[in-house]
Amino acid sequence: MRPLTLAKTAGAAFAAAGLGALATTPAVQSPWYDRLKKPGFQPPRMAFPIAWNVLYSDIAVVSASTIDTLNDRGDSDQARAYTRALAANLVLNAGWSWVFFNRKRLGAAALGAGVLTASSVDLARRAAAVNAPAGAALAAYPAWCAFATVLSTRIWQLNR
């Protein structure tokens, strides 16, 4: 994996994290968030930044490796397709925080989490097609997104 590719994927992943945090941080400290009914399976607040920092790092490393492997194989079209899929995924990722925390659209956020999960599954599938261990390493991302979809949906149901 080339350092420049890693810098690009890490920059993109952590830009998505930063944009999401702009919507999330003020909201989780607000009375609105405190008043939301949350299911018993909601993790403690501290679990989210820990999980997401690990996942964003995983996304950056696996994506850089995947892109460089594809380019090294001479498959630049697939490398560009993976890069587009990564960009779309990170937009969905950051966008979820804005829909849920900033716009307070719980139903739309639940739907968005489902779309993010599907996009994350696709990203892991693409990485696994290039390098099975890399795809396996990225599998935690769609698993966490699937959990987030269930959690978002339940919060929406509890707060209609």
TrEMBL record:
Keywords: Membrane, Signal, Transmembrane, Transmembrane helix
Main location: membrane
Superkingdom assignment: Bacteria
Signal peptide (residue range): 1-23
GO cellular component entries: membrane
InterPro entries reported in the protein's UniProt record: TspO/MBR-related_sf, TspO_MBR
Subcellular location: Membrane
Protein family membership: Belongs to the TspO/BZRP family.
Protein name stated in the entry: Tryptophan-rich protein TspO
